[in-house]
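Attaching the record inline, Q. Sequence:
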Amino acid sequence: MNKHSLSFEGIVEFVTVADAKGFSEAARRLNCSVSHVSRQVSRLEQRLGTALFARSTRSVKLTESGQQYYLQCQELVSGLSQANELVTRTQFDLQGTLRISMAGSFAEQFVAPALVEFAKCHPDLTVEVDFSSRRVNFVEDGFDFAIRYGRLQDSGLVARKLADRSLMAVASTEYLLENGEPTDPQALTKHSCLVTNNDTWMFEKEGREIPVKVSGRFRCNNANAIVDACKAGLGIGYMPKSSFKQSLAEGSLVPILTPFWTKNITSWVVYQNRRFLPLKARLAIDHLLNHFSEWRE
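Structure, as predicted:
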């Protein structure tokens, strides 16, 4: 190919098939026929002189050449989409589907209502929220961004601070009367602890981290269930303060190990490290950052 044969025909279809991992799903996303998508991709392959997909009756996978071409074209299509949005953003409302992954009581109590506000302002936009703490692949799982808290492991993601929070250890009066109150984090190894996603709890003392491996007879990845178990006297809970706010106010739980709580556990908006984000995602993230700009736990 030379500069005189440069053409964008078929590139949008190619990138969509790669993202959707199939021609039928790509056609649905592009609101056109499967035959049109297949024809455009075939013409693109003919112009390039190479196969971009390895096709079978059950799957469609990128070839080595297709993978290299996709990495370049993905940015190209995203850039074109953003350019179109910048020119026409005042002429249309947000449309399509915005997909967000989040987990935890903070997300349930505070982030989800903020997204409801955003959805209300954009009646043509569908907002899908998936509550799961699993690590997501933004491309394969189709998420625009995620809400996470604590230390982030994936340096390939963009992380923007949403709010600073603190962890709190609590127990019911009933539990403490029966089992005694721990005076330091290491004493937790002799107590029943209510485990969420991590059985190594991190405490602090004079700037020094104190990790403690805990165990107990109730484990759950839902904060509300942990609160209920704690109130029922099943053990000690250690989660962000906001999870226990109501229970503390009504006196069903009491704080313990106060000098050792970990502070400044940050909640983040995280998304794929790429040059362009869809307008719907950028505006939703801006809405959340503005909403939580003065939030205090």
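The longest helix spans residues 64-88. The radius of gyration is 25 Å.

More tomorrow.
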